[in-house]
Amino acid sequence: MKLRGRMMMTAGVALLVAIGALLSVTNSGTAWSSGTSERAASVTRPQTGEPAARASAAALASGKADTSRPVVYLTFDDGPSKWTPQVLDILAKERVKATFFVLGQEAERRESTVKRVVREGHALGNHTYNHRYEELYRDFEGFWRQARQTDAILERIAGKPVSLLRAPGGTYGNFDAHYFELLEQAGYRIADWNVDSGDSRRKNVPASEIVKTVKASTLAREVTVLMHDGAGHGESVKALPAIIAYYKAKGYRFAVLDGEAKLATFRLGPDKWQRTWTAAALARAEQLAGERSGGWRPLRDWLRDKGTVAWDGLRKEAVVRVGGETLRLVPGEDRTVRAYGALPGDGGSLAFRLVGERIFVLAA
Questions:
Q1: Which Gene3D superfamilies does the record cross-reference, listed alphabetically (predicted)?
Q2: Is the N or the C terminus of the chain less surrounded, counting Cβ atoms within 10 Å?
Q3: What residues are labeled active site?
Q4: Are 63 and 199 contained in the same domain?
């Protein structure tokens, strides 16, 4: 996977503006507009030297992660392969945790390695079944089939469901707005990266070049490093100790992409696959996503024939009216939605969340 020069930006206020824009127009049944706000992670200079060392010692004494220090998420794509056990050996020696985005077909061939990844405290992510772009990006159902097939394989091997998902080649230019929203609606957490090690630019990129590329990358408060442990990546294994040493010297802590992590995601780019979405195809895709999500539905769809929703730009909240009652929904920067008020007959049984830039509702 390779991607050069992709800009990362914060979502924040832009997200609320975009939600308002979406709620202020008539719902056409489409998922996002092409003007979707850009996604990304914040960039600040990390603490280094003696202050970082003191903070690290305090965290070790308390048994908690030191959130005052910058964090690096090492991620490995396309495995497992014969190189993965060597990667795991290095991580164990360095006492570092990482995240492995595995291919379903490779997981089937090396189940014991996948089990070792989980046993040693690393995170698992879905990287589709076979990495074939033509099958994944010509239409959404092709991507969906591979993601769900790999879901089943990983859950069987690991004994628990996996929600992390990384698109082969990254999302930029491969995902359109519907891909993002449908997959998020289905409960997937989509992860790209903000540091490309360059180990997949061509065959047999030497370890020295991989290390040099990482060191030349921007230091941010949260760094997600793209590496590979698939076939043909022995040089990536050789580069790994130096990369770990580099980030340790800069004061970083290491973590997995768990539910607390802020995921780096590329902005929505031009669709190089030039897909066309019919109303029937979108309805079918939304049905599939809804089945995996356990019943979450777009708020506007749920309100059809029940009531109305409008965006209050001054208060930055959605105002829902049903049968003379009003419910205020306030989106948070952490993508949660707080509800104030009640609707007739809901009995407090409604739940809300942000998916992309739309509010979704779950009726218990």
A1: Glycoside hydrolase/deacetylase
A2: C
A3: 77, 228
A4: yes
